[in-house]
Amino acid sequence: MTKAAFQLLIITLSSIFLLGSCGNSEPDDVNVVDIDTTDENINVDMFASPDVDYHLPSPLQVASIFKKSGLEYNSGVTNDISNVDKYNKELYQMLNFGVYSADMAYCVLNEQSNEGRKYLGVITDLAGEIGMEAVFENEDLMNRFDANIENKDSIEILMIDIHERTEEYMEENDMQHTSAVHFAGAWTEGMYLGVYDYENNGNKDGLGAQITEQMAILGNIIKGLKDPKNAGMELGWVITDLEKIQSTFDNFDSVVAYYEDETADELTLSESEYEELGVMIKKLREKIIKG
Amino acid sequence: MKKFITLIAVFALGLVIAQTASNLTEFKENISRQKVEAKKALKPYRYDGSKVTYFNFKTYKQVKEVEIYLFNNTDYRFSFNGKSLPNDITIKIYDEDKTNADRILLKEADGIMGNNITIESSELDKVYQKEKGSDRRLKRVFVDYDIPGIPGTENKKPTMKERGAVILVMGYKY
After folding, report:
1. Strand A52-55 to strand B62-69: parallel, antiparallel, or no bridges (unpaired)?
2. CB B37 within 8 A of CB B116
3. Residue of chain A nearest B129, judged by CA positions
4. ipTM for the complex?
5. Which of A109, A112, A107, A108 minimizes the C-alpha distance to A78?
6. Which residues of chain A are within 8 Å of residue B24 when distances are taken between CB atoms?
7. Distance from CA of residue A277 to its chain's centroid?
8. Most A CBs within 10 Å: which of B19, B24, B84, B156, as the mutation test of the A interface?
9. Which of A54, A112, B25, B37 is least enclosed by beta carbons within 10 angstroms?
10. Nearest one of B63, B51, B57 to B144, comparing CA atoms
11. What is the pLDDT of residues A32-71, one digit of tens each?
12. pLDDT tens across B151-163, in order?
């Protein structure tokens, strides 16, 4: 027997012995399998979370907060469902998956269930394009929507279910890095709807405060987009635009003053600052939805 | 003879991989069940999302941090499930991230291993407002998991028994 063959035999017998022990041990010992000693390609560390992580709010929560801040429903402001045909590239499909999710939440919370149903349809179509068809493949989602179309609470619960299914599916399939791309679309749309209402329905203070509050999330969205796993998606222009929005906001006099004064309760931008922020949001949103 | 040994080796390796996959599947299934439990503890708050933090116990102390946003005077509840922990850890919630030496400790909780605990943002706000001497509410919090060092653990090649996870489920009052 050659030396190599002998070593192979030792490894084999060790492995068989290890397995044999597992079968006859107490439950606690079953887990004592040092997998790296038998296969270097399997490593439990691949499930270790990063040292610094974050949780982004769901589109429903964002829409709910905006509504509580005085946001009114404006018909025809959301992204038209017919635009879905323009989204042939993965990046636009993912961004607009987020945009339409925000639009659906906006419609549902404003008791526009028929509109919301249309958005569920395009979200389902886009999910099929971006590898998440399993989240929506069960027809019961649309049936549940139809069965509860007059019941806002039930539709909201349905939206939570969709959000949870999406979250779980992405975790199970190692797709969490793409959630930042969906969220970038949802965030931009949410901000756009807020800016539109702020500009067209009388500069409500609560709504203005909410627009500035949502800026807090932006840093982590940018961080998420920069995840190396997202490389190759041509995200450069999205990141550049979002970083420009972030740096412009951070340098507003009102923002600088707010962070210097620990006793200040709420951050309120000046009219010109709101306007500048609004222009940037609208430009980015236009680029995202045009496909 | 050599072919026979190779065949056995491949077969044994396959069994080891299958066993490992089975352990991982069981671990994942437990996480799913525990998430449901954590979600139940949120009621009557509305579910907003979850964050499962995975780690391996090592011989030295580690800290894993999760940033959470709190908006527009909304009340939040955080439900932590520690039933996938082989050892206890400490949960510490701060107003700033771990790079800030002057951050305020808002809440500390031990004994999460094997349990599900809930914490509400209102209690964190009270501590924050008292420390700051103002009415300003928290805009975000940083949840730190202080993972103690466990002597004798494998740092470079962790085994399944050294693996742990905390499930954090978040909800808001609507």
Report:
1. parallel
2. yes
3. A263
4. 0.87
5. A107
6. 44, 47
7. 22
8. B19
9. B25
10. B63
11. 333 333 333 334 455 789 999 999 999 999 999 998 888 9
12. 999 888 888 889 9
